[in-house]
Amino acid sequence: MNEQQIFDAVQNIFRENFDDDSIALTRETSPDDIEDWDSLEQINLLTAIEKQFSIKFTLDDVRDLSNVGDILDMIAHLRG
What we know:
Elements: H1 3-18, H2 39-53, H3 59-63, H4 68-79
Helix pairs in contact: 1-2
């Protein structure tokens, strides 16, 4: 799976979790940009990402995530 495919999969996860097909992510998209992206939704997103990519985040992994780019970088790191 290349970087674009990972990005597309993450965007689909966001669209499904927020039930909004108009979401267009960038690496800079943050919780400030999506109204309902709160701490509970962050957990839902990370759980869906873990399932999609067969990875497991640790608390240290997610503690400093601040935008979509950070999430993409963490996925790439955990997938090796």
